[in-house]
Amino acid sequence: MPAHHPVTWSAQSSLRPALARPVARPSTVAKLQSSREPGLTEKRRNELCALQAILGFVSAFWMRACLLSVLIAAAAVTKAQTVCIDPGHPSEVGVGTHGKRATEVGVDWVVGAALKARLEKEGLKVVMTKQSQPEVVKNRRRAEIANEAHADLMIRLHCDASNGSGYTVYYPAKAGTVKGFTGPSEDVMQSSGVAAKRVLAAMRGVLDGHLHADPLKTDAQTFIGGKQGGALTGSIFSKVPVVLVEMVVLTNPKDEAFITSKEGQSLMVEALAKGVLAALGK
Ligand SMILES: [Zn+2]
Questions:
Q1: What is the per-residue pLDDT across 93-105, written as a single tens digit (0 to 9) for each?
Q2: In the chain, N or C terminus with fewer CB closer than 10 Å?
Q3: How far away, in angstroms, is 51 Cα from ligand 1 center?
Q4: What is the band of 140 on the pLDDT scale with cuts at 50, 70, 90?
Q5: Which residues, including other chains, have CB under 8 Å from residue 210's CB and lie 6 or more apart?
Q6: Which residues are placed with Cβ below 5 angstroms of ligand 1, an ion?
Q7: 175 and 233 in contact (C-beta within 8 Å)?
Q8: Which residue ranges make up each domain of the chain?
Q9: What is the pTM of this model?
Q10: 112 neighbors 269 (Cβ within 8 angstroms)
Q11: Which fold would CATH assign to domain 81-279?
Protein backbone atom coordinates (compact mmCIF):
# COMPACT_ATOMS: atom_id res chain seq x y z
CA MET A 1 0.00 0.00 0.00
CA PRO A 2 1.39 3.32 -1.04
CA ALA A 3 0.82 4.82 2.36
CA HIS A 4 3.48 2.47 3.74
CA HIS A 5 6.19 3.34 1.26
CA PRO A 6 7.63 6.35 3.04
CA VAL A 7 7.85 4.37 6.27
CA THR A 8 9.65 1.45 4.59
CA TRP A 9 12.02 3.74 2.78
CA SER A 10 12.74 5.68 5.90
CA ALA A 11 13.48 2.48 7.83
CA GLN A 12 15.86 1.29 5.09
CA SER A 13 17.69 4.55 4.88
CA SER A 14 18.10 4.67 8.64
CA LEU A 15 19.79 1.21 8.49
CA ARG A 16 22.44 2.29 6.02
CA PRO A 17 24.75 4.17 8.37
CA ALA A 18 24.40 1.38 10.94
CA LEU A 19 25.51 -1.24 8.39
CA ALA A 20 28.44 0.90 7.40
CA ARG A 21 29.76 0.97 10.99
CA PRO A 22 32.54 -1.44 12.05
CA VAL A 23 31.25 -4.88 13.10
CA ALA A 24 32.97 -4.84 16.50
CA ARG A 25 30.47 -4.06 19.25
CA PRO A 26 31.57 -1.45 21.74
CA SER A 27 31.02 -2.35 25.38
CA THR A 28 28.01 -0.87 27.12
CA VAL A 29 30.18 1.56 29.06
CA ALA A 30 32.15 2.60 25.98
CA LYS A 31 28.90 3.02 24.08
CA LEU A 32 27.57 5.28 26.78
CA GLN A 33 30.83 7.19 26.90
CA SER A 34 30.96 7.82 23.18
CA SER A 35 27.32 8.69 23.10
CA ARG A 36 26.66 12.23 22.09
CA GLU A 37 23.47 12.60 23.99
CA PRO A 38 22.97 16.22 24.59
CA GLY A 39 22.29 15.57 28.32
CA LEU A 40 25.68 13.87 28.96
CA THR A 41 27.63 16.30 31.05
CA GLU A 42 31.34 16.28 31.94
CA LYS A 43 30.42 14.95 35.41
CA ARG A 44 28.46 12.06 33.87
CA ARG A 45 31.44 11.20 31.62
CA ASN A 46 33.73 11.14 34.63
CA GLU A 47 31.36 8.85 36.45
CA LEU A 48 31.27 6.50 33.48
CA CYS A 49 35.07 6.57 33.31
CA ALA A 50 35.23 5.55 36.97
CA LEU A 51 32.66 2.80 36.38
CA GLN A 52 34.72 1.49 33.48
CA ALA A 53 37.83 1.46 35.67
CA ILE A 54 35.96 -0.45 38.40
CA LEU A 55 34.61 -2.98 35.90
CA GLY A 56 38.11 -3.42 34.48
CA PHE A 57 39.50 -4.04 37.95
CA VAL A 58 36.68 -6.45 38.84
CA SER A 59 37.14 -8.43 35.64
CA ALA A 60 40.92 -8.61 36.16
CA PHE A 61 40.32 -9.68 39.77
CA TRP A 62 37.81 -12.31 38.66
CA MET A 63 40.27 -13.71 36.11
CA ARG A 64 42.99 -13.85 38.76
CA ALA A 65 40.60 -15.60 41.17
CA CYS A 66 39.74 -18.14 38.44
CA LEU A 67 43.40 -18.78 37.71
CA LEU A 68 44.14 -19.15 41.42
CA SER A 69 41.35 -21.70 41.91
CA VAL A 70 42.64 -23.69 38.91
CA LEU A 71 46.14 -23.69 40.44
CA ILE A 72 44.77 -24.74 43.87
CA ALA A 73 42.79 -27.59 42.25
CA ALA A 74 45.92 -28.72 40.35
CA ALA A 75 47.93 -28.63 43.59
CA ALA A 76 45.26 -30.71 45.35
CA VAL A 77 45.47 -33.33 42.60
CA THR A 78 49.26 -33.60 42.76
CA LYS A 79 49.14 -33.59 46.58
CA ALA A 80 47.57 -37.07 46.84
CA GLN A 81 50.45 -39.03 48.33
CA THR A 82 51.08 -42.74 47.92
CA VAL A 83 52.00 -45.18 50.65
CA CYS A 84 53.21 -48.70 50.01
CA ILE A 85 52.27 -51.11 52.80
CA ASP A 86 54.37 -54.26 52.86
CA PRO A 87 52.90 -56.95 55.14
CA GLY A 88 55.90 -59.20 55.79
CA HIS A 89 56.18 -62.84 54.61
CA PRO A 90 55.93 -65.27 52.99
CA SER A 91 59.12 -64.47 51.08
CA GLU A 92 62.48 -66.09 50.32
CA VAL A 93 63.20 -65.87 54.08
CA GLY A 94 60.15 -67.96 54.93
CA VAL A 95 56.86 -67.49 56.77
CA GLY A 96 58.32 -65.60 59.73
CA THR A 97 57.82 -66.25 63.42
CA HIS A 98 54.78 -67.26 65.45
CA GLY A 99 53.41 -67.05 68.97
CA LYS A 100 51.37 -69.65 70.82
CA ARG A 101 48.33 -69.00 68.66
CA ALA A 102 49.11 -66.25 66.16
CA THR A 103 51.44 -66.40 63.17
CA GLU A 104 53.55 -63.44 62.04
CA VAL A 105 52.22 -63.68 58.49
CA GLY A 106 48.68 -63.50 59.88
CA VAL A 107 49.32 -60.51 62.16
CA ASP A 108 51.25 -58.62 59.44
CA TRP A 109 48.40 -59.16 56.98
CA VAL A 110 45.53 -58.24 59.33
CA VAL A 111 47.26 -55.08 60.58
CA GLY A 112 48.39 -54.17 57.04
CA ALA A 113 44.85 -54.46 55.64
CA ALA A 114 43.40 -52.37 58.50
CA LEU A 115 46.14 -49.77 58.03
CA LYS A 116 45.30 -49.57 54.31
CA ALA A 117 41.65 -48.77 55.11
CA ARG A 118 42.67 -46.25 57.77
CA LEU A 119 45.08 -44.40 55.44
CA GLU A 120 42.62 -44.36 52.56
CA LYS A 121 40.22 -42.52 54.87
CA GLU A 122 42.94 -39.85 55.11
CA GLY A 123 42.84 -39.48 51.32
CA LEU A 124 46.10 -41.32 50.73
CA LYS A 125 46.66 -43.71 47.85
CA VAL A 126 47.70 -47.09 49.22
CA VAL A 127 49.52 -49.83 47.35
CA MET A 128 50.01 -53.29 48.91
CA THR A 129 52.95 -55.54 48.09
CA LYS A 130 50.69 -58.59 48.18
CA GLN A 131 47.02 -59.20 47.50
CA SER A 132 46.30 -62.07 49.89
CA GLN A 133 47.73 -63.37 53.15
CA PRO A 134 49.41 -66.53 51.73
CA GLU A 135 50.81 -64.83 48.58
CA VAL A 136 54.57 -65.36 48.34
CA VAL A 137 56.45 -62.22 47.26
CA LYS A 138 60.24 -61.97 47.29
CA ASN A 139 61.73 -59.01 49.14
CA ARG A 140 63.29 -57.53 45.98
CA ARG A 141 59.86 -57.58 44.31
CA ARG A 142 58.31 -55.89 47.35
CA ALA A 143 60.70 -52.95 46.91
CA GLU A 144 60.03 -52.85 43.17
CA ILE A 145 56.27 -52.59 43.80
CA ALA A 146 56.90 -49.51 45.99
CA ASN A 147 59.24 -48.07 43.33
CA GLU A 148 56.77 -48.63 40.51
CA ALA A 149 54.05 -46.90 42.55
CA HIS A 150 56.42 -43.94 43.16
CA ALA A 151 55.45 -44.32 46.80
CA ASP A 152 56.23 -41.44 49.13
CA LEU A 153 56.88 -44.01 51.82
CA MET A 154 57.18 -47.79 52.06
CA ILE A 155 56.21 -49.18 55.45
CA ARG A 156 57.13 -52.80 56.10
CA LEU A 157 55.26 -54.69 58.83
CA HIS A 158 56.84 -57.55 60.77
CA CYS A 159 56.77 -59.25 64.18
CA ASP A 160 59.91 -60.13 66.08
CA ALA A 161 61.11 -63.26 67.83
CA SER A 162 63.29 -62.52 70.88
CA ASN A 163 63.33 -62.41 74.65
CA GLY A 164 62.31 -58.76 74.64
CA SER A 165 58.99 -56.95 74.32
CA GLY A 166 57.46 -54.11 72.31
CA TYR A 167 58.06 -52.54 68.93
CA THR A 168 61.12 -51.37 67.02
CA VAL A 169 61.45 -49.08 64.00
CA TYR A 170 64.29 -49.79 61.53
CA TYR A 171 65.67 -47.85 58.55
CA PRO A 172 68.66 -48.24 56.24
CA ALA A 173 71.57 -46.02 57.33
CA LYS A 174 74.23 -47.88 55.34
CA ALA A 175 74.14 -49.37 51.83
CA GLY A 176 74.20 -53.15 51.58
CA THR A 177 74.86 -55.60 48.78
CA VAL A 178 72.81 -58.60 47.70
CA LYS A 179 73.42 -60.68 44.55
CA GLY A 180 75.82 -58.01 43.22
CA PHE A 181 73.36 -55.16 43.68
CA THR A 182 74.28 -52.35 46.11
CA GLY A 183 71.81 -49.90 47.61
CA PRO A 184 69.94 -47.91 48.64
CA SER A 185 71.13 -44.45 47.53
CA GLU A 186 72.28 -41.73 49.94
CA ASP A 187 69.03 -39.87 49.24
CA VAL A 188 66.90 -42.88 50.18
CA MET A 189 68.93 -43.46 53.35
CA GLN A 190 68.59 -39.83 54.39
CA SER A 191 64.83 -39.64 53.73
CA SER A 192 64.31 -43.04 55.38
CA GLY A 193 66.11 -41.79 58.51
CA VAL A 194 63.88 -38.71 58.70
CA ALA A 195 60.76 -40.85 58.12
CA ALA A 196 61.79 -43.43 60.74
CA LYS A 197 62.30 -40.77 63.44
CA ARG A 198 58.86 -39.32 62.70
CA VAL A 199 57.21 -42.77 62.63
CA LEU A 200 58.65 -43.72 66.01
CA ALA A 201 57.75 -40.39 67.65
CA ALA A 202 54.17 -40.54 66.34
CA MET A 203 53.77 -44.22 67.34
CA ARG A 204 54.94 -43.40 70.86
CA GLY A 205 52.23 -40.76 71.05
CA VAL A 206 49.63 -43.53 70.67
CA LEU A 207 51.34 -46.54 72.27
CA ASP A 208 53.18 -45.14 75.29
CA GLY A 209 51.64 -46.72 78.38
CA HIS A 210 50.40 -49.68 76.29
CA LEU A 211 53.47 -51.14 74.58
CA HIS A 212 57.20 -50.72 75.10
CA ALA A 213 59.09 -48.70 72.45
CA ASP A 214 62.65 -49.66 71.55
CA PRO A 215 65.05 -46.90 70.51
CA LEU A 216 65.37 -46.29 66.74
CA LYS A 217 67.51 -48.93 65.02
CA THR A 218 69.10 -49.37 61.60
CA ASP A 219 68.97 -52.27 59.13
CA ALA A 220 72.58 -53.05 60.07
CA GLN A 221 71.30 -54.11 63.51
CA THR A 222 69.17 -56.88 61.98
CA PHE A 223 70.56 -60.36 61.30
CA ILE A 224 70.07 -60.20 57.49
CA GLY A 225 70.96 -56.49 57.23
CA GLY A 226 74.22 -57.15 59.09
CA LYS A 227 75.02 -60.09 56.83
CA GLN A 228 74.43 -57.96 53.69
CA GLY A 229 76.79 -55.15 54.70
CA GLY A 230 74.19 -52.94 56.40
CA ALA A 231 70.83 -53.08 54.60
CA LEU A 232 67.90 -55.44 54.27
CA THR A 233 67.01 -56.66 50.75
CA GLY A 234 63.81 -54.60 50.71
CA SER A 235 65.90 -51.50 51.48
CA ILE A 236 68.72 -52.31 49.03
CA PHE A 237 66.29 -52.28 46.09
CA SER A 238 64.17 -49.41 47.37
CA LYS A 239 64.20 -46.11 45.51
CA VAL A 240 61.70 -44.61 47.97
CA PRO A 241 61.96 -43.87 51.73
CA VAL A 242 61.61 -47.18 53.54
CA VAL A 243 60.86 -47.96 57.18
CA LEU A 244 60.39 -51.39 58.79
CA VAL A 245 58.37 -51.84 61.98
CA GLU A 246 58.70 -54.94 64.14
CA MET A 247 55.29 -54.37 65.74
CA VAL A 248 55.57 -56.75 68.71
CA VAL A 249 57.71 -59.62 69.92
CA LEU A 250 55.30 -62.37 68.96
CA THR A 251 57.17 -64.99 71.01
CA ASN A 252 56.41 -62.90 74.12
CA PRO A 253 52.96 -64.04 75.42
CA LYS A 254 52.14 -60.53 76.68
CA ASP A 255 52.90 -59.00 73.28
CA GLU A 256 50.97 -61.76 71.53
CA ALA A 257 47.95 -61.09 73.75
CA PHE A 258 48.23 -57.36 72.95
CA ILE A 259 48.39 -57.70 69.16
CA THR A 260 45.67 -60.36 68.98
CA SER A 261 43.24 -58.33 71.13
CA LYS A 262 40.80 -55.99 69.38
CA GLU A 263 42.01 -53.03 71.46
CA GLY A 264 45.70 -53.75 70.94
CA GLN A 265 45.27 -54.18 67.21
CA SER A 266 43.31 -50.91 66.92
CA LEU A 267 46.00 -49.11 68.89
CA MET A 268 48.71 -50.54 66.61
CA VAL A 269 46.83 -49.53 63.44
CA GLU A 270 46.25 -46.03 64.84
CA ALA A 271 49.92 -45.73 65.87
CA LEU A 272 51.13 -46.82 62.42
CA ALA A 273 48.66 -44.48 60.69
CA LYS A 274 49.87 -41.54 62.81
CA GLY A 275 53.43 -42.61 62.03
CA VAL A 276 52.83 -42.67 58.27
CA LEU A 277 51.05 -39.30 58.35
CA ALA A 278 53.90 -37.79 60.37
CA ALA A 279 56.48 -39.22 57.96
CA LEU A 280 54.59 -37.61 55.07
CA GLY A 281 54.61 -34.28 56.90
CA LYS A 282 50.86 -34.34 57.61
ZN1 LIG B 1 59.37 -60.94 59.74
A1: 999 999 999 999 9
A2: N
A3: 73
A4: very high
A5: 258, 264, 267
A6: 88, 96, 158
A7: no
A8: 15-76, 81-279
A9: 0.74
A10: no
A11: Aminopeptidase (3.40.630)
